[in-house]
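// run 5 | inverse folding | seed 20
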């Protein structure tokens, strides 16, 4: 039996970890029905999680000399599997592209942002207005994203 779900299950797993790490989801967002022994999402939490999951599937990956979204890669792999199953291809490759997983420790990043002085930020090439909004988001409880360049600069603190 061929199962195309397993090679890409990690995308959902990473989205779950990111949702809890960034506090998009927390335990109070779930409730136990009791009659079927299943936990359910609160509707608001479900919507927030779907945004995180969508972001994971829409993130880019380098594959065959291009940067593609993971959902596009999965579509291409489904086509490759189909070609393999009907005999149009003799081999199939699921090890490429391989994911590059980077830990994003939200609490650590928030702490780094809040201790960053204006002078140090300027030396790192972070504008005054950018630092203002970074601090504003770091003080809040909601999840926030950093663009790649700013994330790299703050990660090196």
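// decoded
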């Amino acid at each position: 039996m061929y199962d195309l779900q397993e090679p890409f299950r990690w995308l959902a797993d990473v989205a779950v970890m990111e949702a809890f790490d960034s506090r998009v989801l927390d335990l109070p967002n779930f409730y136990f029905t009791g009659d079927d022994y299943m936990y359910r999402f609160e509707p608001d939490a479900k919507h927030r999680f779907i945004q995180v999951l969508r972001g994971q599937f829409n993130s880019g990956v380098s594959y065959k000399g291009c940067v593609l979204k993971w959902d596009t890669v999965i579509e291409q792999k489904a086509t490759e599997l189909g070609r393999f199953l009907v005999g149009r291809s003799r081999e199939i490759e699921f090890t490429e592209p391989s994911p590059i997983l980077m830990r994003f420790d939200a609490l650590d990043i928030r702490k780094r942002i809040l201790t960053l002085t204006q002078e140090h930020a300027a030396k790192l090439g972070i504008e005054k207005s950018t630092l203002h909004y970074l601090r504003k988001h770091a003080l809040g409880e909601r999840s926030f994203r950093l663009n790649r360049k700013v994330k790299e600069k703050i990660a090196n603190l």
